[in-house]
Specification:
Blueprint (H helix, E strand, L loop, with lengths): L13 H13 L1 H9 L23 E2 L1 H13 L3 E6 L6 E5 H17 L7 E5 L4 H13 L2 E4 L6 H11 L3 E5 L2 E3 L2 E3 L1 H11 L8 E5 L13 E3 H7 L9 E2 L3 E7 L7 E6 L1 H14 L7 E4 L6 H13 L3 E5 L10 H9 L3 E4 L1 H8 L4 H4 L8 E5 L5 H11 L5 E5 L32 E5 L5 E2 L3 E8 L8 E2 L3 H9 L6 E9 L5 E6 L3 E4 L2 E4 H9 L4 E11 L3 E10 L7 H12 L8 E4 L13 H8 L17 H9 L2
Parallel strand pairs: 2-15, 4-5, 4-6, 5-12, 6-9, 9-10, 14-15, 14-16, 16-17, 17-18, 28-29
Antiparallel strand pairs: 1-11, 2-3, 7-8, 12-13, 13-22, 19-20, 19-21, 21-23, 23-24, 25-26, 27-28
The structure holds 5'-O-[(S)-butoxy(hydroxy)phosphoryl]adenosine.
């Protein structure tokens, strides 16, 4: 069933959209050159796509100038950023002029600490102003930011600091989650003390979110606020090559080691700007609220770079949807007249449980575009969001993309592409998805297969930090001639895409990517466990939950499950805690010793009818043993 077509005062009509799609297909070079002009360049690029060397390769620019300086003349007094603190009555508004000054001050502090072009700076913060400011300050100096999600464990942080060769860290004394305090600084201290011989961190700058004192290491740690206050409010911007890295962002794949995805400057920023304008129908006066943490790619592209490069107004909210009560988000939308609201299916599922009465107590009529990202959304959650929150008036964009793509790839365009509930619909102009069978043959028409992308696009990641070979083998080698996304999809008779989920061993918990191998590696380090397998199974609230099968060295050990959970949360983070740990005598394996995940998944889901041919297993009897253990 499709919803009635909503054409309001949207920027694009269906025929505009068709014209863009046609031009992008017929003359990609000219199309992307035109899109490149949405940025302000120091030296304009002579071509868009170069052979091999990335996008707009001979262009030079600075990303912070594109997000700040170039708006000063036309909209210096416009609000760039509204920061809503945890306390309901605390709001900070920064105009473009204010934000520019704050970013310059931060850049000067970083420079005084020896940071210059190419250096890596880690940002490990709750949702406070210094996060956005820190990112743009790095961009101003040509330093490469590495934003670390607040939920990472010290182990996970240490791995990323070491791999990136980070020289300076910006963190906070604590983060606030409702009444709780999250110990950012002490988590960072633990990370820094784990394997000091692998680290290059010289300075730790600490934001005071509250008055709580934290231990400071002399010679390494400093409070940031006093340094910022003394700093000069202007700072020249470095001229960067289009293909110089703007940031690294770590994400999970099918190996145990997280990959530092490298995004460039000109191509990435063009993509962030292009997709933000197109997908969210960006118009003057919009108040754009993307609820993602800046620790994820969504926060990079749609809290910071997309909306600010387009001169928009962003909202940042420090608090949680459920504190002090479950109406908090609706109150934020009402008080700041949010027009564009971009969030996750996980959040929608949680808010849906609170019923329809609560959101109806708020005036949500400022909303005109609703968006979701990160995981498949059910038709039920789609319709609830559309109807109860959007009042049936809003454009709805279910956006499919990934850390590696830099920005949105498949999504409706408001006013131009008719929605179908729970479908990501059609590729954006210039994006060319294909579906392949497992032999790598391209499938036509209405079908289902592995989702790949043909050709390149400006937002595509440049490489994996320190490991270009892994970039080639992960994305370009599996289906030669196509870029492999790791997802499966169905295409219907209208050419619409319906993402079915990962086809590799990546588990998507509340929109967070976790590799099975990351969990298995964490358990391999726990002496009491000999072997394990981590599996994703459907979960009502989180989308997917993690189930672990573990073989114990001594099955009579009384605390195996607790040890397993602790090993995972210590190595990866609390967000990767499994729903269930089953201690089993063995794992189902083929005769060549390969774990049969398909069977473990079916057993964990209770789908024990039709387990298929078990004769290829080394020990078919293990299947009944597992079923008995799981069914308890
Ligand atoms: C994976 C990428 C994209 C920014 C946030 C996550 C899944 C993403 C959708 C969607 C179904 C989706 C895919 C993808 N995913 N968007 N609209 N419908 N699945 O970025 O951490 O790199 O994860 O998230 O499986 O591969 P990420």
């Amino acid at each position: 069933m499709s919803t009635p077509f909503r054409s309001g005062a949207f920027r694009l009509s269906p025929s505009d959209y068709r014209a863009l799609t046609d031009t992008a297909r017929q003359n990609p070079e000219a199309y992307w050159q035109t899109q490149g002009t949405r940025l302000e360049w120091v030296n304009a690029p002579s071509s868009a796509q170069d052979t091999g060397n990335g996008w707009f390769a001979d262009g030079t620019l600075n990303a912070s100038v594109n997000c700040l300086d170039r708006h000063l003349e036309t909209r210096g007094d416009q609000t760039a950023l509204i920061w809503r603190a945890e306390e309901a009555d605390h709001v900070v508004r920064l105009t473009y002029r204010d934000l520019h000054a704050r970013v310059c001050q931060m850049a000067n502090v970083l420079r005084a600490h020896g940071i210059s072009r190419g250096d890596r700076v880690a940002i490990h913060l709750p949702t406070v102003l210094e996060g956005v400011i820190g990112m743009l300050a790095c961009a101003r100096l040509g330093a490469i930011h590495v934003v670390l999600f607040g939920g990472f464990s010290p182990e996970a942080i240490a791995d990323r600091l070491a791999d990136s060769g980070t020289a300076l860290v910006i963190t906070a004394n604590v983060g606030r989650r409702g009444a709780k305090r999250i110990p950012f600084k002490t988590t960072m201290d633990s990370a820094l003390s784990l394997r000091p011989e692998t680290l290059f961190v010289r300075s730790v700058l600490v934001v005071s979110v509250t008055d709580e004192p934290v231990p400071m290491q002399a010679g390494r740690d400093e409070m940031l606020t006093p340094l910022l206050e003394k700093a000069e409010a202007s700072c020249p911007a470095e001229t960067m090559a289009s293909t110089d890295p703007l940031f690294l962002l770590y994400t999970s794949g099918s190996t145990g080691k997280p990959k530092g995805i490298v995004h460039g400057t000109g191509g990435y920023l063009t993509w962030a700007s292009y997709t933000h304008e197109l997908v969210f129908d960006h118009q003057p006066g919009d108040v754009f609220w993307c609820t993602a943490d800046i620790g994820w790619i969504t926060g990079h592209s749609y809290v910071v770079y997309g909306p600010l490069s387009n001169g928009g107004t962003i909202l940042l909210f420090e608090g949680m949807p459920s504190h002090p009560g479950p109406g908090r988000w609706w109150e934020v939308i009402q008080s700041h007249k949010v027009t564009t609201f971009y969030t996750s299916p996980t959040a929608i599922r949680a808010l849906m449980r609170e019923g329809n009465e609560l959101p109806r107590q708020y005036d949500l009529t400022s909303l005109r575009v609703l968006g979701t990202v990160g995981e498949p959304i059910s038709q039920e959650a789609w319709s609830w969001f559309d109807d109860v929150i959007g009042g049936g008036r809003c454009a709805f964009v279910d956006t499919w993309w990934q850390t590696e793509s830099g920005g949105i790839m498949i999504s409706p365009v408001p006013g131009a592409v008719k929605e179908k509930p729970a479908s990501a619909t059609l590729p954006l102009p210039g994006v060319h998805p294909v579906l392949l069978d497992d032999k790598g043959q391209v499938l036509d028409g209405a079908t289902e297969g592995v989702l790949c992308l043909d050709g390149s696009w400006p937002g595509r990641a440049l490489t994996i930090w320190n490991d270009d070979t892994l970039f080639q083998t992960t994305y370009l080698r599996p289906y030669p001639g196509h870029y492999f996304t790791g997802d499966g999809a169905r295409r219907d008779e209208d050419g619409y895409y319906w993402i079915t989920g990962r086809v590799d061993d990546v588990i998507n918990v509340s929109g967070h990517r976790i590799g099975s191998a990351e969990i298995e590696d964490a358990l391999a380090a726990e002496h009491a466990i000999v072997e394990s397998a981590a599996i994703g199974i459907p979960h009502d609230l989180k989308g997917q939950g993690i189930v672990v099968y573990a073989v114990a060295r001594d099955p009579s050990h009384p605390e195996l499950e607790m040890l397993a959970v602790r090993a995972i949360t210590a190595k990866v983070g609390r967000y990767a805690a499994p729903e269930k740990v089953y201690i089993v005598p063995d794992l189902p394996k083929t005769r060549s010793g390969k774990n049969v995940r398909r069977l473990m998944r079916k057993i964990a889901c209770g789908e024990t009818d039709g387990l298929g041919d078990l004769s290829t297993l080394a020990d078919p009897e293990i299947v009944d043993v597992l079923i008995r253990i799981v069914q308890g």
